[in-house]
Amino acid sequence: MELFTRPSDDEKYLVYKLNISKLLNKNNFLSMNKFKIKKFLDINEEQHFLRYRLELFRDWMKENFRYSKECINKIDSILRKTMLINALYPNEEAFIYSLRNIVFAKNRNLKSLLTDLRLSKTEQMYYFYQLNRFVKDGINKSGFQICLTNHNIYLRENTLNFEKIHFKSIYDLHLCDDHLIIQTTMNKYEVFVPDPKLLYVSIERILNIKKFI
Questions:
Q1: CA 27 to chain centre
Q2: β-sheet bridge partners, residue 136
Q3: pTM over cut 0.85
Q4: Phi, psi (deg, nearest 5) at residue 193
Q5: Rg of the chain (C-alpha set)
Q6: Is 208 exposed, middle or buried (0-12, 13-18, 19+ CB in 10 A)?
Q7: pLDDT 10s digits, 154-180
Q8: What are the CB-based long-range contacts (under 8 Å, 24+) for 45-48?
């Protein structure tokens, strides 16, 4: 099901939507606050009103969604003003949580992290994430971490068993719904992580180029 949507073919809702849209619509939606919203509340039509507010928010997201701090702040403001925070489904809350992590990864200062991997003198660890699994040459491997330095990507099980991907060897990144494909001059890696977008922007941040977007 589409995020921020409560589908309904109830004719009563369609009539309700037609009527309320004359008073509350995308043109004045952002000027709403809790006090104004409460004026529209009717206990007999509470579910209709919730569904309608979510539709307005969904439509705003389609037009304005960006991976930026400004967008995060605006989302927080809208959800608070329209009293939708406590009405979100778990997958919708997870989407916003993921958005926060991605924006943080894109904007935080890169700092060297401690690691037990033996790195070169010019190499620094910047990110590491837990992998669900990765696929190389048709072989599934699990129980690994993915670590990003300024020179390489490490798919590591421990300090002795790891795969190393040189950033210079990467010529394509492809973001899928549940994984990231890293194509190098020698191999293709399908990397499955809890949040592929977060991994994607972390790699893009280190590469510091836009050609894969």
A1: 27
A2: 139, 189
A3: no
A4: -130, 160
A5: 22
A6: exposed
A7: 999 877 788 999 999 998 889 888 999
A8: 45/16, 47/6, 48/12, 48/13, 48/16, 48/17
